[in-house]
Amino acid sequence: MSIKSIIIDDERLARNELKKLLQEHPEINVIEEAVNAKEGIEKIEAYNPDLIFLDIQMPDKTGFDLLAELERAPRVIFTTAYDEYAFKAFEVNALDYLLKPIEPKRLNDAIHKVQLEIAKEKMEINGLNKNPLTDADQVFVKDGERCWFVKLAEVRLFESVGNYAKVYFGTNKPLVLKSLNALEERLDPKVFFRANRKHIINVKWIEKIEPYFNGGLLVELKGGEKIEVSRRQTVKFKEMMSF
């Protein structure tokens, strides 16, 4: 298993030290480096890595700012000299949080988490049904003690909540243990559209569309939810919805 990776850190010595440690892990293929958030975003979008090693404190923007600007965040391992950001790091769904100087044992543990995560996602995508789920399909949804058997046509919205996704149908909003990326792989893209990094909408539930900030759109669903379509996704949305 080759894991395409990018190191994003403004300190050259820190990047070199991490690359040196990663020589013990031939499965980690460092394809690029970036010295700030702007360059990091450009290289993530250009190379679509499986994993990024991300510093938090950088000159232009923080690592958290970088993640907020991405449509689809890759798997993230934070590398930082500061321990006060640990809680926030896991809120943004980071796989691990390594303090500099990085200990080889902690790096081993972090890479093991990445391998497990990739294996789990492959099983989710390949293990059930290789054909996309359409709005005619029914799915089993379980949240705690409550269970539903829901037709996907009734689901108007999926919302990312860390490692979980909130499923909106009727008055129900149960949480399922699936990432938004994993759901997107299974759903029919002609019906379920990735509006932004946190939401997938059912286009058949759209009530109203209006222009929004920075060239994006604001979509109102029949359930009352208002979802922003990011500028980049707006281009794809218009292509998909036009003649």
Task: Explain how this protein is built.
- Strand 11 (192-196) and strand 12 (199-202) form a beta hairpin.
- 31% of the residues lie in helices and 32% in strands.
- The N and C termini lie far apart (42 Å).
- The model has no long low-confidence stretch (mean pLDDT 89).
- With 243 residues, the protein is of the alpha/beta class.
- The protein has a five-stranded parallel beta sheet with strand order 2-1-3-4-5, with helices on both faces. Strands 10-9-8-12-11 form a five-stranded antiparallel beta sheet.
- It has two domains: 3-126, 3-Layer(aba) Sandwich (Rossmann fold); 138-241, OB fold (Dihydrolipoamide Acetyltransferase, E2P) (Beta Barrel), CATH 2.40.50.
- The chain is globular and about 55 Å long.
Summarize the helices and strands and which ones pair or pack.
Layout: E1 3-8, H1 12-22, E2 28-34, H2 37-47, E3 51-54, H3 63-68, E4 75-80, H4 86-91, E5 96-99, H5 104-127, E6 138-143, E7 146-151, E8 155-161, E9 164-169, E10 175-176, H6 180-186, E11 192-196, E12 199-202, E13 206-211, E14 217-221, E15 226-229, H7 231-241
Parallel strand pairs: 1-2, 1-3, 3-4, 4-5
Antiparallel strand pairs: 6-7, 8-9, 8-12, 9-10, 11-12, 13-14, 14-15
